[in-house]
Amino acid sequence: MVNGKPTLALLPGLLNDEALWQHQIAPLSEKAQPWVADFTSQDSIAAMAAGVLEAMPERFALCGLSMGGYVAFEIMRQAPERVERLALLDTQARQDPPEIRQRRKDMMQLAEKGEFKGVTQRLLPQLVHPDRVEAPEVGGVVLAMAERVGKAAFLHQQTAILGRIDSLPTLAQIACPTLVLCGENDLLTPPDRHLEMAAGIADARLVKLPDCGHLPPLERPQNTTAALLQWLQQS
Fold first, then answer.
1. Number of neighbouring beta carbons within 10 Å of residue 144
2. Most buried of 4, 30, 106, 201 (most Cβ within 10 A)?
């Protein structure tokens, strides 16, 4: 807690960096001290979680999107007493089915062959609502983030995601105020995965944003910020 404000750990997803949260950081700073994790060097979810815990004060608020949500679940296993509130954005508790695991491995093979640009172009229509693929403030930001994060980090992150454990059995152990938020048109982690998480966590509030894909902080920035501000002030 700094100046009476809780520290807020913002955990990005695959091929995302601080730009994912560019619309949230300033308004959230009125109620919290935002901090954005860097997941470019670790190749396991456990290592990512340990890095966040090392950087955080004794108590903090935790918000993870997609891969960041997987890390958030691991933090809740490692040190639940340190998390005062939890936000899970466009993520899932369950493991990937075999076809998705194979798709990840195929993309890793493409990247290892030097076709990293092709991987990001293939991902984009899965990440954002079709209306925003060509929008510089959404699709353009996603491609720029992927380029900055780069191939080596992409391979580390996919390795970490493939190695994650199933968080469904531990949902009932989460005891802090929890926001579960998703885009209604999310193709990667569909709304039913969020219904599942919200049903499994005792003190969870579910928010679904219309005309929105996998990246609400960029696609629906005002709605996402409003939901996070309400969550930060939830008792």
1. 13
2. 201
What are 154-170's pLDDT values in tens digits? 999 999 999 999 999 99
The domain segmentation of the chain, as residue ranges, is 1-235
Tokens of 27: 């308004």
Measure the CA–CA gap between 194 and 121, rounded to whole angstroms: 26
Residue whose C-alpha is closest to residue 75's, from 42, 43, 44, 53: 53
What is the third-level CATH fold of 1-235? Rossmann fold (3.40.50)
> How long a stretch of residues is the chain?
235
Please tell me the distance from the alpha carbon of residue 162 to that of residue 24, in angstroms, as a whole number. Answer: 29
Tell me how far CA of residue 86 lies from CA of 18, 72, 100, 114, 221, in angstroms.
19, 8, 26, 38, 19
Tens-place pLDDT, residues 122-162: 778 889 998 888 888 999 999 999 999 999 999 999 999 99
Tokens of 47: 């290592």
**How does pLDDT run across 172-197, given as a tens digit for each residue?**
999 999 999 999 999 999 999 999 99
